[in-house]
Amino acid sequence: MFTGIVQGVGFRPFIYRLAHRYSLSGFVQNRSDGVVVEVEGDAGDIEVFLEHVSQELPLVASVSGIRSEDLETTGDRGFRVITSEKTDAMEVHISPDIATCEKCLKELFDPEDRRFRYAFINCTNCGPRLTIIKDIPYDRENTSMECFPMCKECSREYSDPLDRRFHAEPNACPECGPQLWLLDSSGRKIDTPDPVERAVDLISEGYILAIKGLGGFHLSVDAGNDEAVKRLRDRKFREEKPLAVMVKDVTHARLVSEVGQVEERILRSPERPIVLLRKKNGILSPYIAPGMYTYGIMLPYTPLHHLLLEKRFNALVMTSANHKDEPICTGNREALDRLNGIADFFLVHNRDILVRCDDSIVFVPSSGMSLVRRSRGFSPRPIRISEPLPGVLALGGHMKTSVCVLKHDMAFLSPHVGDLETPLARDFLFKSISLMERITSTRPDCVASDLHPDYYSTRLAQKLGRRRVVQVQHHHAHIVSCMAENMVSGSVIGIAMDGTGYGTDGAVWGGEFLLCDEASFQRAGHIGYFVLPGGERAVKEPWRVALSLLREAFGRSWKEIATGLSLVEDSSLLPVLEAVIERRINSPQTSSLGRLFDGIAAIVGLRRKVSFEGQAAMELEALARLSEGIELGYGIVSQGDKLILDLLPTVREIAKGMLEGIPREFLARSFHETLISAFADMALSLAASTGLGRVVLSGGCFQNRILVEGLMDRLTGKGVDVFFHHLIPTNDGGISLGQAVCAGYRIKNKA
Ligand code: ZN
Ligand code: ZN
Ligand code: FE
Q1: Taking ligand 1, which is a single-atom ion, which protein residues have CB atoms under 5 Å away?
Q2: Which tops the pLDDT comparison, 717 or 323?
């Protein structure tokens, strides 16, 4: 019995061919708890057979367990593939969706092939998986391909164990499979012999197309067409947030960005995520990613993408088709409805998307690949943890959230759910819970959530009616998520740097140094508190944070400094804000590094307001890349049992530097260098006092490459073992994993 990702990845034909090679008889069968293989033959041959199973495993398969037993011989002749059987135990892992393989691509562009230019070509090694499943086991009748009975030729391929489409569940051809067509914005079908060619023409003419993809719709325009990109931004109310771009191949990626070896491998990988690559100036519209130093670039991952990019375009914008804060559209009617007023035309098809799945996003710091968003291509591939734990369902936080189901020693993260601000997003959260429970065949007794009393997910955890609810502090969850994916157990020093997380003292935490293990934590230090004037408003308007920092840093003279830096348009606002801060009107205290970044970005004149979270920090990093820097002043003071990191000297030097006309890129870089030194100092002094030699980094701020690379280098240089994320996001997308593992340990410890 083989368990792991062994269904929908060509495992059975692989076993069949191997059994033939070594003249073994027996059978292979998909079951909902794994793939059962029975072989009979010469003992030596069976041994060689087993060796080759692990050596020649199909590209996207992964075996997590093998159980074997000796049976009486039956004298069977031949090797058979027998039909699936549904059993209770469920250890089969559904495969993520897989980008079109080379063999299918060859056929796609081969005029002699019966699938020439057929947009739904796939095989056992590629094509849709998670996004088309209704239920397990992964068989055609449990997918949205159920309504397309295969033609004779397709059936032949499907049932021939030596064919590369043997049991390719989404197998189809132009005769029998899904079809494409084009609609105008009112939903009227456009009469054209070739909807793809017509779509290409329309995009060239500057129209906005909604294109039905694998896990949802994209909105697409020509990425070189300024007018079209601007129009898309206007209609989508997406002022500045970067837009993802799809290019034909790595050569085209190199025209617009710098692609290193690791990046090239990730771009081409079967997961095909969006990779954040350093910009080169050139052919893309400046409206694609204003103020950023990277572009989000991906290669085509469906046959339709390959057809669209075949000839005409250097690059296409391919951004998720949704309104702000809402999940991506998946249904044809839904798209027409929700994208009304945004898209001019719709390129749709009749293969239903049953599981919504956004594009994944990856960045590549010197430590290797790290995820910004873990979704299509990765989910629901499980993450193995260091020991078996009780079952847990974890609901994540509030922003960029995901759902995690813990089963034995495997953690299954759902596709990206997003921010739980809208009813549609909350509905999507429900669907994600039921999806993850269905494909793992569990219904855990325990639900884990954040500690924040006002988060939708926290309240939902109480309402689900499971036996136990475990609340996990946000930054503890961050650190445990990173420990879990690195299989680190026991006590560590955790550095959690992010925007917002509810603290046990009711303050907004976000610059935390924890002494913790998987089950519990002690707050050993943090960035010194400052006031967040106006709470949520300060998140959208960093100038407010800047004023609060200046007041803290300069005392009485802060207003002159603020005026000198032109931080307010109207100086009569200063006393008003002062009152807000002093009386702490709706103004919590915070230790958030994310907000500190915002404040510094405002002080160096980058921007007073942001149009998406993290924007100011990303621009500050882009600015810092233009210069060298020095270490500025900071202090570490001990307060009771905590170390407080005082960054006000840094704020003072940066503000003064601005007034003295020191180049702001130098100040931006110096801010980064100072944080690296200060965080390393904090960690090293905790290491000295506790004897711990392992430091774990997590939190959204570590998407900043200067910061994460600098800190890892510094600490590693001091002989400390440093751990960072590779498999799950360092931002709140990874929180659910940390919650699940933490809750699992707490229950286990109590038992
Ligand atoms: Zn293929
Ligand atoms: Zn067919
Ligand atoms: Fe966070």
Answers
A1: 101, 104, 123, 125-126
A2: 717
